[in-house]
Write a structure and sequence with these properties.
alpha/beta, 8-stranded mixed beta sheet, Rossmann fold, 3 domains, 26% strand, globular, 7-stranded mixed beta sheet
Length: 550
């Protein structure tokens, strides 16, 4: 998901028009209609209804089909050339997007209209969602989701511009073309947009009198800030009332790009700094919010989950401290060791897994990806990831294997015993796609070694799936392994900060978690069982059935 400001929109439109014909709503003499973009065109993306629909872009009212020539008493007829260059239709409303589907059923059925088919093939539809459809609109009657148009690219109006999301391969190509004008939208805004959509859909099915006040809002985001004094000390500040509300505080402790100043020196935020800011916001809300929920996808100090010898037990202490501050529920994803929740037995601790989102991302990006035992195998890179691999393989009905780490326990390097070798346990991977599943990529050294060994065992392709892509040692090694053919794709979620460089890599795939997270928040707010969203078995089965039919 991306965002573009209103100020940059003219530049984006100019960039598109430079590469292809661009149709969009243009105002002329107070009337808004679809027309070609020009430098002096008065673009109007705010008018809900144009005088004419954009259907003319695919099916014009008149066109030249044949040309007749006469020479020396001989007549020849030549058909007009088919559309062979891309073009874009910008600002199409959801009802008009649905109208294109109706035209498809008529003109693409046998015998297909070749002129229409050529335009559909080369046309890129950029839709603009309607947040408040007029009473005279047909969306409700025909089951059109005005807030979620199904086009090549979907856009939504936001406070300072537009949200932008590519939904098809053509949409992704257009996004690449204009990427310099887009900024990546943060996870909180994506979740907020999904939550707003859920609530509007539910209200549409109910009587207005039965909907409680504040149930549906244009946005559920609460503005807050952690300001710093010159010494580096800080305070949390919530800028609007949260009294009586369920408060969900989302924190990404891995975002090292955030900075603050200490005595004139710029410091990057560490996990410790983010944790302190989290406590500041909780402190500002304590006694006011009805219930405080902390969404911490990457669990603070989750890797320090058990005590050996004379060590601190940081993760358990963190959970206990926040519990004492008034936090009633913790939401995390793929906890390194979920048993740490035993430190807060009277609090909620929900641990979710992105299994379905991984599979969905793979199926979408890898066109010939097959979900059966003849073509796929799941691999655990070490004994710690076994439970994830077992679930993955069981739900898909495919074989699994495991590597175990042989360490040198006589030596300590960077606080841990170095890995001497990876030993493989399992059946042959020859000719199969292999998915290596784990909770995180830190340096990636261990994961890359496993991937190389899998390829040396003649696996067809190697896909690495991890919830968190930290890449603490950079991406150079992953680039090298990709170039050598030892890895094919790396899939991570958008639950933590990812370097923009990673997003540009040809081997990277994002598993978007915004819709899943919005569903979790909505369920908890309704005081319903989270099992409705925790279990993804049915969705995975539907996906498998769909893939195997193709």
């Amino acid at each position: 998901m991306y965002q573009i400001s209103r100020e940059k929109m003219p530049e984006l439109l100019a960039a598109v028009a430079k590469e292809m014909d661009l149709f969009l709503p243009v105002q002329n003499n107070g009337i808004t209609n679809f027309g070609f973009w020009t430098e002096d065109a008065k673009v109007d993306l705010d008018t809900l209804k144009t005088v004419k629909s954009p259907k003319d872009a695919f099916f014009p009212q008149s066109e030249v089909l044949y040309s007749c020539y006469q020479k020396a008493n001989k007549t020849s007829i030549e058909p007009a050339a088919l559309k062979d260059a891309p073009f874009a239709i910008f600002g199409v409303r959801p009802c008009d997007v649905r109208a294109f589907d109706v035209l498809d059923r008529v003109f693409l059925s046998e015998p297909a209209d070749v002129y229409y088919a050529a335009r559909r093939e080369h046309g890129i539809v950029v839709s603009l969602a309607c947040h408040e459809p007029e009473d005279s609109c047909f969306c409700k009657t025909f089951g059109i989701d005005a807030a979620e148009p199904q086009a090549d690219v979907a856009m939504w109006q936001v406070a300072d511009g537009y949200a932008w999301e590519a939904k098809t391969e053509k949409g992704e190509k257009l996004t690449e073309l204009v990427k310099e004008y887009l900024t990546e939208q943060d996870l909180a805004k994506e979740v907020d947009k999904k939550l707003v959509k859920f609530r509007k859909e539910l209200i549409a099915k109910k009587k207005p009198s039965t909907v409680p006040q504040g149930y549906s809002l244009p946005s559920f985001l609460v503005e807050c800030e952690c300001v710093r004094f010159g010494t580096g000390e800080g305070k949390g500040y919530i800028k609007e009332s949260v009294r009586g509300a369920d408060l969900f505080i989302m924190v990404d402790i891995t975002n090292y790009t955030e900075t603050y100043t200490v005595c004139g020196h710029e410091n990057h935020m560490s996990p410790d700094n983010h944790y302190q800011d989290l406590k500041r916001i909780i402190s500002a809300a304590t006694g006011k919010a009805h219930r405080i929920n902390v969404i911490m996808p990457f669990l603070y100090e989750g890797r320090q989950h058990r005590r050996t010898k004379r060590e601190s037990l940081d993760c358990a202490l963190m959970l206990k401290e926040l519990s004492d501050m008034g936090v009633s529920n913790f939401i995390t994803f793929d906890a390194h060791d979920p048993r740490v929740q035993n430190s807060i037995p009277l609090n909620g601790f929900d641990n979710f897994f992105p299994t379905y989102q991984f599979l969905k991302a793979l199926v979408k990006d890898v066109k010939d990806f097959k979900l059966d035992n003849d073509h796929l195998m799941i691999i655990s890179p070490d004994e710690g990831a076994m439970s994830r691999a077992v679930y993955f393989s069981n739900i898909l009905g495919v074989d699994m294997g495991m590597f175990y780490k042989r360490r040198d326990y006589s030596t300590i390097v960077n606080g841990k015993n170095p890995i001497v070798a990876h030993e493989f346990l399992g059946d042959s991977v020859e000719g199969k796609d292999v998915v290596i599943i784990d909770d995180m990529i830190s340096s990636g050294e261990s994961m890359l070694d496993v991937a190389k060994q899998i390829k040396e065992r003649h696996a067809k392709r190697v896909f690495i799936c991890t919830t968190y892509g930290l890449f603490t040692d950079g991406l150079k090694k992953f680039d090298e392994y990709y170039e050598k053919g030892w890895i094919d794709k790396v899939i991570t979620t958008n639950l933590n900060y990812r370097d923009p460089e990673l997003l540009e890599k040809p081997y990277y795939i994002e598993a978007n978690m915004s819709k899943y997270l919005a569903s979790i928040m909505d369920i908890i707010n309704h005081d319903l069982s989270v099992e409705k969203v925790r279990s993804s078995n049915d969705k995975i089965m539907e996906l498998m059935e769909k893939v195997n039919k193709c």
